Amino acid sequence: MAIRSRRLSKDNTYDALKQKIIDSELEPNQPVHEENLAALLGVSRTPLREAIQKLENEDFLIRQPNGRLRVASVTLKEVEEIFQIRSMLEGYIARNAAKHATENDIVNLTTMITKMKHSFQLGDNQNFVTYGFEFHDYLSEISELRTFEKVLNQLKDHSLRYCRFVSMHGDWNTQADEEHDLILQMIADHNEDGAEKAMRDHILSSLATALDRIKGIEEKLEA
Amino acid sequence: MAIRSRRLSKDNTYDALKQKIIDSELEPNQPVHEENLAALLGVSRTPLREAIQKLENEDFLIRQPNGRLRVASVTLKEVEEIFQIRSMLEGYIARNAAKHATENDIVNLTTMITKMKHSFQLGDNQNFVTYGFEFHDYLSEISELRTFEKVLNQLKDHSLRYCRFVSMHGDWNTQADEEHDLILQMIADHNEDGAEKAMRDHILSSLATALDRIKGIEEKLEA
DNA sequence: ATTTGTATAATTGTATACAATTATTAGTTT
DNA sequence: AAACTAATAATTGTATACAATTATACAAAT
User: Fold this and answer.
1) What is the pLDDT of residues B5-30, one digit of tens each?
2) For an interface test with B, which of A81, A143, A144, A200 has the most B Cβ atoms less than 10 Å from its Cβ?
3) How far apart, in whole angstroms, are the C-alpha atoms of residue B163 and residue B79?
4) CATH number of A76-222
5) Cβ separation of B66 and A4 shorter than 8 Å?
6) Do B145 and A5 touch (CB under 8 A)?
7) CA–CA separation, B117 vs A214, rounded Å?
8) Which architecture does CATH list for B9-71?
9) What would you report as the CA-atom Rg of chain A, rounded to the nearest whole angstrom?
10) pLDDT per residue over B106-147, tens digit each?
11) A169 beta carbon < 7 A from strand C?
12) Is the pTM above the cut of 0.70?
């Protein structure tokens, strides 16, 4: 009786494709052709199509009425909704963390914030964003709310795509630092209401930043 | 230039399979074999596998470490999380409806509630559940919050599976009637805070009912 | 010049053959 | 009888051939 956990070609293809989309290597609205991609990634169309379908389900790829594929665009409306949903779900996660977080969790979270501060001082926007997401992911992980986590993971992948785009053109939410500090403090104090509110405020503040940056980028492009 | 909107074999297969799972025709934990299903549904393995993968992504089908498939079980933990998430997201939807609902929307919602009451008096649990979900779906539709709607649709399909199971063994939430009345009234009054709270309370009340019924069923089975 | 029709090419959708992996059975040893 | 092994069957994973559909190019007609 053998137990299998080999990595299927489908999964590798999925990861590679998603990364290219998040990193804007495949740009919004760009058309996608199966045969080209299959050759590029060195797999046949079968596992590629399975990867594509998963990305379709997650709204990273869009199938047009004529059956052709393109990379999803990012609309302000979508971004607003995604951050709005995240604020509610992650607020609940933070409340949960305030109830259950251990001393060790606090130490780990503090480390992540320290790394963030460091990246910020170096002006390393990409790592600033990366460590910020690690902070949020850690809270999801220790929550043991697996359904919350699953829903959030998809939304956060979209958020990441968006943040990467914004942070390529300038600073990301410079208040994120202090906001994370406040969240962590509330969790350490086991203040459930405070943790929930701090997290909601933080995510809605990030939304405001995102919308603001996008307007700036659009104006720059028009000028 | 021809425009295509034909129904693909993959989509039909997906719908048929999901329905069988929601209706418990394919029972929780039941193993699923590709070749059998393909023959049963009259399609080849290729479109079937695409349908299966979509249902995997939505957690209706589970792929075990050895690659074999089974129908997802339903755990109390999952149900709790799903209703908890719904309470927040649909609360926001209800708030939105209180802001934007038209006279015509109020009329349509009233009709749905009337149908529910009627089904309840006839003791028709299945239709009672069906019309209840229509009420919720209608609010999502008019919200124009497409990302909210997409997330909710998946959660509601799981909820429906669960409610159908419960309502086969007895009455569903008998307070749902009055709770819907209250929600509708708040929306008609354009009371945003009231609508959000009424919806959250309603969904959490349904959760309490669900958990209660499940315990009853389990006890009956053990006796 | 614009439109229309037709032939051709390109792309996606489906079926199927085959490869890789896992489960089962039977036989052997202890 | 229990445990291990080898051979076989069953199942899933991948590649590929072909069918169906859609896009493109080009000629003919208005």
Assistant:
1) 568 899 999 999 999 999 999 999 99
2) A81
3) 10
4) 1.20.120.530
5) yes
6) no
7) 49
8) Orthogonal Bundle (1.10)
9) 19
10) 999 999 999 999 998 888 888 888 899 999 999 999 999 999
11) no
12) yes
